[in-house]
Amino acid sequence: MMGTSLPEPRETRLRRLKMRSMRRGMREMDLILTAFAASELDGMSDAELDRYDQLLEEYDPDLYRWIAGQQPPPEEHRALVERIARGASGVTGRL
């Protein structure tokens, strides 16, 4: 059965995404994404978690510029970036 991987249990996935949100490399993104993950991830659908997982693959400086409104995000991330930005008041100086 080599090459076959089992689906990641939801609780394991949530813990992994929360950890990845906390350990970014850019302090502002640590603060923004940790707060977002704590308040939103548990209520997100599997499809939304897929999009968040993909967003976490982006470079922190790009993520920060998108969330702060300094640069438009790629269309595939637009809705999620806007959702994160709504909760980032005070960290980005934008809201």
UniProtKB/TrEMBL annotation:
A Gene Ontology annotation in the biological process aspect, one of them, is: tricarboxylic acid cycle
Q: Which domain of life is it from?
A: Bacteria
Q: Which InterPro entries does the annotation name?
A: SDH, SDH_sf
What Gene3D superfamilies does UniProt report for this protein, alphabetically?
Answer: Flavinator of succinate dehydrogenase (1.10.150.250)
The family database entries (Pfam families) matched by this protein are listed as: Sdh5
Keywords linked to the UniProt accession: Chaperone
Protein family: Belongs to the SdhE FAD assembly factor family.
Q: What is this protein called?
A: FAD assembly factor SdhE
Which species is this UniProt entry from?
Pseudoroseicyclus aestuarii
